[in-house]
Amino acid sequence: MASNASLIIFRILFGLLMVLESWGAIATGWVRSAYVEPKLTFPVGGLVQLRVLSGDIMYGYFAAMGFAALGVMLGLRYRFTSLALAVLWTGAYLGQTDHYNNHYYLAVLFAWGMALLPAAGRASMDVAAGRLAFTAHTSPWVARAFKLQLLIVFTYAAIAKFYPGWLNGDYLRVNLGSKGDVWPLGWLVVQEWFQDLTVWGAILFDGIVIPALWWKRTRVAAFWGLVAFNLFNSLVFRIGIFPYMVIGLTVFFFSEASVERAFAWVPGMKPNEPLADTPSPAPAPRWKIALLGVYLAVQVALPLRHHLFPGDVAWTEEGHRMSWRMMLRTKSAKLLLVARDPASGKSWTIDQDEFLNALQQHRVASAPDFLYRFVQDLKADFSAKGQESIQIFARYSACSLNGAPSAPLYDSSVDLAQVEWKRFARNHWVVDQRL
Predict the structure, then answer these.
(1) Is residue 406 part of a domain?
(2) How far apart are the C-alpha atoms of 200 and 370, rounded to whole Å?
(3) Cβ(45)–Cβ(141) under 8 Å?
(4) Is residue 263, in this structure, part of any structural domain at all?
(5) What is the arrangement of strands in the sheet containing 331-341, beginning at the earlier edge strand?
(6) 3-state DSSP call for residue 293?
(7) Are residues 149 and 292 in the same domain?
(8) How far apart are CA 87 and CA 131, in angstroms?
(9) Each residue of 318-372: pLDDT tens digit?
(10) pTM above 0.85, yes or no
């Protein structure tokens, strides 16, 4: 058995970060812009049933999620609050993709991990109230699972950077070049030499930092490097809680004794008897370890699924999500949609402002799955008006990837109202200039 100190400390930090994420989303207006104001939402995978997660109810939804996260942090009614946080955050993640990023997906994975683990055996109100027995041990597979998950994330982040848009510096020139006014590092990130250094520096860092944390001799240096790297990302890219969640995960790489010493000041952490004398739970059964193996195998496989069909995933977006392709591409795009009534032969331009906000219009113009979902909504709207045979064409589309010259993204000759979305095959109405 291993000490559960790392798990307990991460529970407290993760709960705190999710409180800030949930209530901060209300305070900053993110809930309003993502769920309340849009006339349409775009759930993951076309799960239109999740459109119930929209409107003013989402203020209460995120408030409740914050309270659940607070319960996780405090270890209060942990079995209920941890499960509530996992369910609510998963719904928030699946309910809209306008603001999608891989960090939200990682938080989903950890929320479920914390819901399934006995992470309230110390420093918790449940122990203080006598609802749970104090326990200072857990299976060594707990720390290994967190470390392996982080290894998968960073390894794929490094591998994904081996593509022309990153290696030639185009993404960094476009993205960092627009951040000259970001205090306090704007003056630095716009320098060409810094952008050139970042191209290979980021690949090297992503590739070696987790193995370096694993190895005792390089652990301290890797930790401070990870702290500096994530604080830089937080200051420059403003990506919410993710940098701090990654820093918090490093607690799993340090020795049990060092974690026990470092966090002995946390109320409820110190056992009333020597650690070795505290009762240990039974070893993890083989079926649980086997399930963990299946989970990790899925995590390894998911980022590879874009190889099932041809095309540049950065261009087509097919296989982009849940693959740790982080901060690799930026797009500008324009799209003109035209509806045609075959009965009368009349055509007219679709006013996207009637249905979509500015961000959603950009997503529809630059991401094929967004366009497909929007066309399905248009079909339903026209059908409700008695125009069931309507045709819809992308009469003009132009997309630029990482500042490159614009090119068509959608085939203008295809009636989009008749296409079907293929999840594991190429959608031929999506134009890839390389094919």
Answers:
(1) yes
(2) 33
(3) no
(4) no
(5) 346-349, 331-341, 391-401
(6) helix
(7) yes
(8) 23
(9) 888 899 998 888 999 999 999 999 988 899 999 999 999 999 999 999 999 999 9
(10) yes
